[in-house]
Design a protein that fits this description.
Length: 394
């Protein structure tokens, strides 16, 4: 068994695409043992990985050809928006299973989309796999005919809403949260619903003046997508909340990290529509950070994985998709990366099972489908932005 170190690169260019998606800025980060224990660990790992490398139950009988093809390809290029530090355990585990080197390129969502489009048009070397939280842009790539269909043997373990045309699969189940400063907001003041938040901002307008934060949806496409999904679920409450936040003179940000840092410092007291997975990770290290999932409804977003139609390592790409969706990969995602697993059979604090037990029918996953493209239409986008501007910047 060989373990090949991941090649990880990162570039931060300004994208040319008109929608300004911004990647969260926050970063979340062996003892020597006697040689006989090392040998034992290697033996156990080899046995475990050999068992996995055998064709799993329910997989097609010709799957070994995919594994053999991936080993011959030897390398997999992944473009992703997920922090390298979070997924390094997955990368190492995948490499140890198949002996395929992963070149993991960590960038923001705008760059991922623009870079792939540019390289694809020039027929240059590009990603085999794209893994992004920009759900609408991932679906646009599918609809533009740039992704290839692959029916993963693990697809049957996913909710139906989390797969699209056998070309895009949801890999996480990430709730959006209200995040607040625990030192400066007493427990009894923390809103549990959007109606509570509206009332709090209206009743204590002086206290929250200039101390509310949310996405600047003109600069953050992820934030834009989240708010359009709010409108899909409950338009009246959404616009009432935007107006209530607007009346406080909110501090608009383009990333989750920027919002949470300002809440942690006390510059802001509360933030809306912040990705719960990052809030959970931050709260474990920062006693100032508290979060709640709105009980009226909690939006759930997902990171979508797709395979390029021009993939130079198509077999390795299939293995990566299957691994991400497998119980093994999903368990690592949930319990080591802190990202919420989308499989019902994975347990732990950051899992769909735990969230469902806690919130039940109030969970509202964003369906993966053509509906995500509605606000990529320029006229609809401009109309939505105009209404937001009138409400948030009064």
């Amino acid at each position: 068994m060989s373990l090949v170190s991941a090649s990880v690169t990162r570039r931060d260019r300004i994208g040319l695409y008109s929608f300004a998606y911004t990647k969260p800025t926050s970063r979340y980060l062996e003892d020597d043992v006697q040689i006989n224990f090392k040998a034992l660990a290697v033996a156990v790992a080899f046995a475990t990985n050999s068992a996995w490398a055998a064709i799993p139950p329910g997989y097609p009988t010709d799957y070994q050809a995919t594994v053999d093809g991936a080993k011959k390809e030897g390398k997999l290029i992944v473009y992703s928006v997920t922090d390298t530090a979070l997924v390094r355990p997955l990368i190492k585990d995948f490499e140890s299973l198949y002996g395929v080197k992963v070149e993991y390129n960590d960038m923001n969502t705008t760059e991922l989309y623009n870079r792939y489009i540019s390289e694809n048009a020039a027929s240059g070397v590009s990603a085999d796999v794209l893994w992004s939280s920009a759900m609408d842009l991932q679906i646009k790539l599918v609809n533009d005919g740039l992704m290839t269909a692959y029916e993963s043997p693990e697809a049957k373990q996913l909710p139906q809403w989390a797969q699209y045309q056998k070309q895009a699969y949801g890999t996480t189940y990430e709730p959006l949260a209200i995040v607040y400063n625990k030192r400066l907001m007493p427990a009894g003041e923390v809103p549990q619903t959007r109606a509570d938040l509206i009332k709090l901002l209206q009743d204590k307008s002086d206290r929250f003046k200039g101390r509310v934060t949310t996405y600047d949806i003109e600069k953050s496409g992820v934030g834009f997508n989240y708010l359009t999904q709010d409108v899909r679920v409950n338009p009246q409450v959404t616009w009432d909340l935007v107006k209530a936040m607007g009346a406080t003179g909110p501090k608009l940000q383009s990333s989750t990290g920027a919002m949470m840092e300002r809440i942690s410092s006390g510059e802001n007291l509360i933030g809306y529509n912040i990705l719960g997975s990052y809030a959970v990770i931050k709260a474990k290290k920062d006693p100032s950070i508290g979060y709640v999932y709105p009980k009226d409804y909690t939006l759930v977003a997902s990171r979508l994985v797709t395979i390029s139609k021009k993939a130079q390592s198509p077999n390795a790409a299939k293995l990566w998709v299957d691994y991400l969706l497998s119980r093994r990969g999903q368990t690592l995602l949930a319990n080591q990366a802190g990202l919420f697993s989308i499989r019902a059979d994975v347990e732990g604090e950051t899992s769909m099972a735990a969230l469902t037990k806690q919130l039940g029918n109030s969970l509202k996953p964003v369906p993966i489908g053509a509906e995500l493209l509605v606000y990529l239409d320029q006229s609809k986008r401009l109309e939505f932005l105009k209404q937001w501007q009138q409400s948030i910047r009064r």
